[in-house]
Amino acid sequence: MDAYWREGPDAVSLNEICRRAGVSKPGLYRAFGGEDKLLDAALEHYADVVLAPNFAAVDPDTPLRDTLEAIVASFTDADRAGPPGCLLARLQQADGLGPLATGRVEGLRQHARDSLATLIELAKARCEVAEEIPTEVAAAMVDIECNAVLLRMAAGEDPELLRAQARLAFSIFH
């Protein structure tokens, strides 16, 4: 998971993963059945140890702008665990993923958008988001902005600038 997160699946070979893990390639194939299953397992682990706690930390009763501010702050926190950026955001940019990994990426991405849509609906009920803004459009916009912040953090951009730009993007919400 760490190698894929830090370097991306295109930049780290299966041989290098075996070397780092101290396992043989046949042993890896016996355990995972190939690179697609290995990447799928890495994504499953990432979802459990990184994504799930982040989703659980979101309080649906907190105003949307405060929630989005906290999310971006966590993405740009230099002291956060793990490499900068996001494995899921990185894999959305990768070419040639196998069917298992592609399905896992799509499922996790849909879960994120569904969670954002729920937050948008709650914010609409509190009059924080204009009713005429389609929920799916707002959720997609927030998802795209968050992914941009994560990818730009991984590229080493200035966290303060990224926070300011996200604040501006999210200023459409009351």
CATH architecture verdict: Orthogonal Bundle
Query: How many independent structural domains?
Result: 1
Residue runs with pLDDT of under 50 for 5 or more positions: none
CATH topology: Tetracycline Repressor, domain 2
Beta-strand percentage range: under 5%
How would the global form be characterised?
elongated
Total strands: 0
How many strands, what sense, and barrel or not for the largest sheet?
Answer: none
Strand and helix order: HHHHHHHHH
Cα-atom radius of gyration: 18 Å
Give the helix proportion (percent range).
55-70%
Mean of the pLDDT scores? Answer: 92
Class from helix and strand fractions? mainly alpha
Number of helices: 9
What's the name of the CATH homologous superfamily?
Answer: Tetracycline Repressor, domain 2
Give the end-to-end Cα distance, rounded to a whole number of Å: 38 Å
Query: What is the CATH level 1 assignment?
Result: Mainly Alpha
